[in-house]
Amino acid sequence: MIGDADEISAMPKLGLRFWVLWCAAFLLISVGFVAGLLFLIKNGLWSNWVGIAVSLTFGVGVFTLSVTPYFMMHKRGLAPKMREPHRRYTMRFLPAMFAYVLILTPAVTFFQDAKPGGVLAWLVAIAPAVPLLFAIRAILLYYKEEDDEFLKAMATQSHLLATGFMMAIATAYGFLDLFGLVPHVQTWAVFPVWALCLFPAQAITHRKFR
Amino acid sequence: MRELRAVMGWSQAEIAAMLDVSRQSVIAVETGKFDPSLPLAFRIARLFGRKIEDVFFYDD
Question: Which residues contact A43 (CB under 8 A, 6 or more apart)?
Answer without folding.
Answer: none
